[in-house]
Amino acid sequence: APAGGGCSPAGGSSVPVLFCFSVFARPSSVPHGAGYEMLIQKFLSLYGDQIDMHRKFVVQLFAEEWSQYIDLPKGFLVSERCKVRLVPLQIQMTTLGNLTPSSTVFFCCDMQERFRPAIKYFGDIISVGQRLLQGARLLGIPVIVTEQYPKGLGSTVQEIDLAGAKLVLPKTKFSMVLPEVEAALAEIPGVRSVVLFGVETHVCIQQTALELVGRGLEVHIVADATSSRSMMDRMFALERLARTGIIVTTSEAILLQLVADKEHPKFKEIQNLIKASAPESGLLSKV
């Protein structure tokens, strides 16, 4: 590691590091020889709920020879006890929303039988949800499904085929971000984007989206597969989420972005899915 990293050499396979962000400072450790990527992961694990991932950041190292922080030197590897901080820059990043099957996971949230009479346009979002899951199977995209208190609210509706889902999990927490879900995501290499749909927009969908963004993932909410009991609740939730940089989109846009090219080997099958089930319910006029 470059000189000036601060403090004394650390023995063993891990090195103590003080991680500073905003007004916070938390001691932790990283493996000896860890570099920039490991430091970023550690910052996210410690401060993920406070970090706005739509901003640019710089990692800085406290240099005793200057008695102040300096930008992390190129090629820096942790070899001794040190202090680092994450500094947000003023320029916000633009969320591009690029999707590829290899870096995407689908989240299907609480599409359960007891919600059928209460959720507006529920039949339509079931139809679109099933189309999305069929597309996921065609493209080899992992699917994570939750059911809110199924003992009282029933299982996922029969119309939605959960065959091949990576995880089907009961929950009482509103957010889908449970320890089991985080473990399942950790098993999928290179995950960058989550396509999220289900109910209710202003509760479980909103809380799931915000937690995922806080963990550094890009979230796409499928407007024609997401609803609530109240269209006002749904509308304001989608507006709030869009302002945070979460992408509010449609099922057709998602599926065609994932194939990206007419020459994609699954394009015809995806095209047939889109043609076969495209409800015109007026739901999108309520966005």
TrEMBL record:
- Record-linked Gene3D superfamilies: Isochorismatase-like
Q: Which InterPro entries does the record cross-reference, listed alphabetically? A: Isochorismatase-like_dom, Isochorismatase-like_sf, Isochorismatase_domain
What Pfam families does its record include? Isochorismatase
Against CDD domains, the record matches this protein to: YcaC_related
Per the database record, which ranges form the Isochorismatase-like domain? 104-252
Read off the SUPFAM superfamilies from this record. Answer: Isochorismatase-like hydrolases
**What is stated as this protein's family in its record?**
Belongs to the isochorismatase family.
Q: What is this protein called?
A: Isochorismatase domain-containing protein 1
The protein's organism comes out as Probosciger aterrimus
Q: What is the lineage of its organism?
A: Eukaryota, Metazoa, Chordata, Craniata, Vertebrata
Q: Which gene encodes it?
A: Isoc1
